[in-house]
Design a protein that fits this description.
alpha/beta; Fumarate Reductase Iron-sulfur Protein, Chain B, domain 2; FAD/NAD(P)-binding domain; 33% helix; binds flavin-adenine dinucleotide; binds iron/sulfur cluster
């Protein structure tokens, strides 16, 4: 380890973001470049802990102190090889991961944690620049064929691993382009799409076959796939949105978040010319305080909304951890996203009661009531505050309160995969109730994060490889260390 006392010498520093007033004029990534010298200082802050809690925090088990050291010593080949040993796509997680590793970094006990996510992004970008990331097709082919259905981060990671194991992988995707929510959910100001295209081109060169514009769902297709392939991975996400179940949800102008974000990403990707849902000049209300809600705020600001208000049922979290939420737990503190910085009013502890509308069936308002959270019988519940009910103007509303589970489109049934009461598929070691059919990502674990989807894809690939070959030499996560907690993206 190079600089043992870097954490005393250097403060945590991350890239400056572009002026919010300027950046809402485009959809480009918001951060300014970060100098090599500064990055070196950030890597030097790592203490190379005897027990690196950052490993525990990362769902992929990233080998963090080792890659920090390689960055400090400017050994980029080593840095990317350490990073790739646990993470297929550090250029994605280095941009959009909420970084649970940083939340469990030992420095975080009484200082700012090591800027692990920033270091990860820079290793990936430097390695691409230096030509250290290039197509590396497997030397031997197994003669086995695997179909992967759904090309989000889970399907991409499973395909990458299975291809490396020598199997012929065909990835079926219903949309025109590959990437799932990386492409059609997350806006460009968080993840520009050339980043996905660059990786997909490499995977193609390595032998993965991508079949887009192909929705798999009916029983005949499933039968054909089950006959033609030796194993199947289902990684179709958790696209069934949760609704508010309040009066007026059917008014024109009330949408699920993904109706808006999906179309905007199609505009940016050149698939369509105009978003049919425009926020320009509108009073926008975003219901839900998570990542998806933030993305609706950022996109509405770029459309030129008249006002944006974000509502959250839960109380406003504290700015600092409290005693009930000690390190190294995920900090339940107030998060201010880059989209919040660009402008939006945030209201906490608020309940939506009813949308109101005009004779043309368009939404015009939303009735709200303040609530108070109280403990009753050992659990937290809320009570409406009498006299606080009011109707606020609303001509566009985005519902961003999460997902119920996989889309209800008969896909699981067609592949003989039984489901639980909560609509998630039954799974044991990533295998469904049909032994030939495996499961990965949000469709298996429920709505989650990109880093978890990559982890699921990798772990599923090991199980598929074992099923096909009796044993697998693909890397597997060391679960003996600690059990990582899942962080849910809203
Ligand atoms: C708006 C939004 C913002 C988010 N922001 C973040 C963030 O900043 N950081 C983070 O870590 N996580 C974020 N998440 C969560 C993250 O994107 C997901 O957890 C992750 O993408 C799940 O990956 P997946 O591969 O399981 O599924 P998905 O990404 O949902 O991919 C599933 C794929 O399957 C395809 N498919 C579905 N059905 C079929 C079918 N029948 N036939 C063929 N193809 C099919 C879909 O078209 C899609 O391409 C966000 C989610 C949303 C909605
Ligand atoms: S916990 Fe933080 S300081 Fe310790 S090894 Fe990991 S990144 Fe470095």
């Amino acid at each position: 380890m190079g600089a043992k006392e870097g954490f005393i010498q250097f403060k945590r520093e991350t890239p400056v973001s572009r002026d919010p007033k300027e950046r809402i004029g485009d959809y480009k990534e918001i951060y300014e470049p970060f100098s090599g010298e500064k990055l070196n200082q950030q890597a030097a802050r790592c203490m190379d802990c005897g027990v690196p809690f950052c490993h525990n925090g990362c769902p992929l088990g990233n080998v963090i102190p080792e890659f920090n050291d390689a960055v400090y010593n400017q050994e980029w080949g080593q840095a990317i090889s350490i990073l790739h040993s646990t993470n297929n796509f550090p250029e994605f997680t280095g941009r959009i991961c909420p970084a649970p590793c940083e939340a469990s970094c030992v420095l975080g006990i009484n200082k700012d944690p090591v800027a692990i996510e920033l270091i990860e992004k820079n290793i990936a970008e430097k390695a691409y620049k230096l030509g250290l990331i290039k197509a590396n097709p497997p030397e031997k082919r197994s003669g086995k064929k695997v179909a992967v259905i759904g090309s989000g981060p889970a399907g991409l990671a499973a395909s990458d691993q299975l291809n490396q194991a020598g199997h012929e992988v065909t990835l079926f995707e219903k949309d025109a382009k590959v990437g799932g929510l990386l492409r059609y959910g997350i806006p460009d100001f968080k993840l520009e799409k050339w980043v996905i295209d660059r990786r997909v081109a490499l995977m193609q060169e390595e032998g993965v076959i991508f079949t887009t514009n192909t929705e798999i769902g009916n029983t005949n297709q499933a039968e054909e796939i089950l006959k033609a392939f030796d194993a199947v991975v289902l990684s179709t996400g958790a696209a069934h949105p949760r609704s508010l179940n309040i009066k007026g949800e059917n008014y024109k102008g009330v949408h699920f978040a993904m109706e808006f974000l999906g179309k905007q990403n199609q505009v940016i990707g050149g698939e369509i010319t105009e978003n049919p849902i425009s926020a320009k000049g509108k009073h926008v209300i975003v219901i839900g305080g998570g990542d998806t809600g933030s993305d609706c705020i950022g996109t509405s600001n770029r459309h030129g909304a008249a006002s944006i208000t974000q509502l959250e049922l839960l109380p406003k979290p504290p700015k600092q951890r409290n005693n009930l939420n000690p390190w190294p737990e995920w900090p339940m503190t107030l998060k201010t996203s880059s989209s919040h910085e660009e402008g939006a009013e945030r209201i906490f502890s608020i309940l939506t009661k009813e949308f109101t509308g005009n004779e043309a069936g368009e939404v015009t308002g939303l009735t709200l009531v303040d609530i108070e959270w109280v403990e009753k019988g050992g659990r937290m519940t809320f009570e409406e505050i009498p006299g606080s009910e009011r109707t606020v103007p609303c001509d566009l509303a985005f519902i961003a309160i999460g997902y119920m589970g996989p889309a209800q489109n008969g896909l699981l049934e067609a592949f003989g995969a039984e489901t639980l009461e909560n609509s998630l598929p039954k799974s044991k070691n990533y295998q469904s109730t049909n032994p030939k059919v495996f499961l990965a990502g949000d469709m298996r674990r429920g709505q989650s994060l990109v880093v978890w989807a990559i982890s699921e894809g990798r772990e599923t690939a090991v199980k598929v490889d074992e099923y096909l070959m009796g044993t697998s030499s693909l890397p597997q996560k060391d679960v003996s260390f600690f059990q990582v907690e899942e962080q849910i993206a809203g």
